[in-house]
Write a structure and sequence with these properties.
With 597 residues, this protein is α+β, with helices and mostly antiparallel strands. 31% of the residues lie in helices and 14% in strands. The strands form four sheets. An eight-stranded antiparallel β-sheet has the order 1-2-19-18-14-13-10-9. A seven-stranded antiparallel β-sheet has the order 8-5-4-12-11-3-20, covered by helices on one side. Helix 2 packs antiparallel against helix 3 and helix 13 runs antiparallel to helix 14. The structure holds glycine (GLY).
Length: 597
């Protein structure tokens, strides 16, 4: 592996006080803060690469690639490890989307392994409940999709025997791994909401409580980071999957344990049944692709709002020259306005397209986006109203709340020229907080991604309302970018709730418009507007570029932006294909890690 630096970072020096890197020109360093802290640099490999949010998961994917596995094989192995070592973000009890670029055929395929509402679910499922009450309950658990998705992508695109993909996860579950500081801190932050060790809403489930905490009525602090953790129940689940395939998860003893965990929830029982599990199917959906300055940007369509919102933002931004500095007030203003416009449409139109008519094509229609771009002036537009895209759609009311968070992203390119972009989730931290007894994995709370209200005050239904068997709207934006000839250029995606859309769009703009390499693109502090305030990320020494956040804030406020300065929980995993090899960037706001050769 060798570190590679593309375009000099000097392009950013106007408004950005850069941290010194080997690649930063002397003139740039002279303008920076006196004691600049180096920021991470990109990694380049010759033929294969995997980027995840955890070094153990990256290593698992790397081993599989080295053994001749495809990107799909590597993603399966990485997912089995992520569910163990980063359980707050994704796992077997959750759901995921995969965008696949096939090296041989050049085709893009998308796979929807999103959780589903049980057949017994009704529109008033969350009526009168606070988000926390809904989240920490059996009602929020959707029928998991991740095990079926793993099997589907392996069947369609795998090269190694299925059984071999479980070796790294099994070794870690039985031999042990170290709990990360990040996991421990998150457990502690949730425990702090409880009245006492015995009176608990968070980690109310005794299995999860015992696994993640000191587990007594007098000492229920989180096990500290670095604790050696073993999870033999998780190993048993992996063995079942390995030996019986996904059917071993969706039927039989494991399915019974899932149903028992949902229906026996100590706070609010849910209604998932064995039939719901046995009926679960991955959906192959048409990719949603849009053009951005001559590049084809492809991602996941409904039930995800990801590709539509990212595509709208880019289609609007295409009408402007963004200059050469991603943190210049002009560029940030434009990015924020594009975010406002995209979120206005997203909140009105997007739900599971198996249940509501989403005007997907119209939302990305170039003339429509030109019209939307025409609404942007030098001043902040304030709350954007949704537009009326061409095409059919159901009359719906906007969803006002937006509760998504958590999640993890995996990007892989293999030696065969395939690429995979997978965003995977249990929704909020540790999903609904219940660990399946004997299963060693957590259940999701994905159904809180539905609108809690079924209709607005006039009774107009909300596209993303709860319906039986429906998949909740997502913001997950696994994305693959190709050139005009269909050659692979970029694999990107991130966790971060509804901010996923902005993080992903920003990574693409940073590479395409500002010429940054993937790591430099990730190192740029985040800016975004989801049709509320314009959020600026404060600089993080050694992780992001340094910059004068107060000056940017003042410049935006002068244009009428309401501005917040907030920490951001992105977890971008980005791979760029260049003539010099695969160039990778990981997000060190989390435990990001790059592997390959
Ligand atoms: N739960 C995160 C998302 O689907 O957007």
């Amino acid at each position: 592996m060798r570190v590679r630096s593309r375009r000099g970072l000097g392009a950013l020096t106007v408004a950005v006080a850069l941290a010194a890197t080997a690649a930063a020109p002397v003139a740039a360093q002279q303008q920076t803060v006196p004691e600049a802290v180096p920021v991470p640099e990109a990694v380049t490999t010759a033929q294969e690469m995997v980027v995840t949010a955890n070094p153990l998961a990256t290593r698992a994917g790397e081993q599989v690639l080295r053994n001749g596995g495809t990107a799909a094989d590597a993603a399966v192995a990485a997912q089995t490890v992520l569910g163990l070592v980063e359980p707050q973000s994704s796992g077997l009890g959750g759901g995921a989307f995969v965008v696949w670029h096939d090296g041989a055929s050049g085709e893009i395929t998308t796979y929807d392994g999103r959780e589903k509402a049980p057949l017994a679910a009704t529109e008033d499922r969350f009526a009168g409940l606070s988000f926390t009450d809904a989240w920490q309950s059996g009602l929020s658990a959707g029928v998991p999709g991740t095990p079926a998705l793993m099997e589907e992508i392996h069947t369609r695109h795998g090269a190694l025997p299925w059984q071999r993909l479980f070796a790294p996860g099994l070794r870690l579950a039985l031999g042990g791994y170290e709990m990360t500081d990040r996991t421990a801190a998150l457990v502690d932050s949730y425990l702090a909401n409880n009245d006492s060790c015995s009176d608990r809403l968070f980690f109310r489930d005794p299995v999860a409580f015992e696994y993640y905490t000191n587990g007594s009525e007098t000492d229920c602090a989180a096990k500290p980071g670095g604790t050696r953790m073993r999870n033999p129940d998780y190993a048993d689940t992996l063995k079942t999957l390995r030996d019986e395939g996904a059917e071993g998860f969706y039927t039989g003893q494991l399915a019974e344990a899932v149903v028992e965990a949902v229906q026996g929830d100590p706070h609010l029982p849910g209604d998932m049944t064995l039939e719901d599990l046995a009926d679960y199917e991955v959906a192959e959906r048409s990719p949603v692709c849009s053009d951005y300055r001559g590049h084809e940007v492809c991602g996941m369509g409904p039930p995800s709002s990801g590709a539509l919102a990212v595509g709208q933002m880019l289609g609007i931004l295409e009408h402007f020259d963004l200059g050469d500095d991603p943190l210049d007030p002009d560029a940030v203003h434009l990015f924020a306005q594009a975010g406002r416009l995209a979120f206005a449409d997203r909140n009105l139109y997007v739900g599971d397209a198996d249940f509501v008519t989403v005007p997907a094509e119209g939302m990305l229609d170039p003339d429509y986006l030109a019209e939307r771009a025409g609404l942007i002036t030098d001043e902040d537009m304030g709350t954007a109203e949704p537009g009326i895209p061409p095409g059919e759609f159901d009359p719906t009311a906007p969803q006002t709340e937006s509760n998504e968070s958590g999640t993890s992203h995996v990007s892989v390119v293999d030696r065969y020229g395939n690429a995979l972009s997978m965003t995977t989730t249990v929704e909020s931290g540790f999903g609904n907080g219940v660990m399946v007894d004997g299963g060693g994995f957590l259940l999701n709370n994905e159904l809180t991604d539905f609108s809690f209200a079924a209709a607005d005050a006039e009774g107009t239904p909300i596209a993303n309302r709860v319906q039986p068997g429906k998949r909740p709207r997502s913001s997950m934006s696994p994305t693959i970018v190709r050139d005009a000839e269909g050659s692979l250029e970029l694999v990107t995606g991130s966790p971060g709730g509804s901010r996923i859309i902005g993080y992903t769009a920003q990574s693409i703009v940073n590479v395409i418009d500002f010429g940054l390499d993937p790591q430099q693109a990730i190192n740029v502090p985040h800016v975004q507007n989801n049709n509320g305030s314009t959020a600026l990320e404060p600089p993080i020494p050694g992780v992001t570029l340094d910059y004068d956040v107060a000056a940017l804030r003042a410049a935006l406020e002068a244009r009428g932006h309401p501005v917040t300065v907030t920490e951001q929980a992105s977890g971008l995993s980005v791979i760029q294909v260049t003539s010099e090899g695969l160039v990778g960037g990981a997000d060190y706001r989390r435990d990001g890690s790059i592997g390959g050769r």
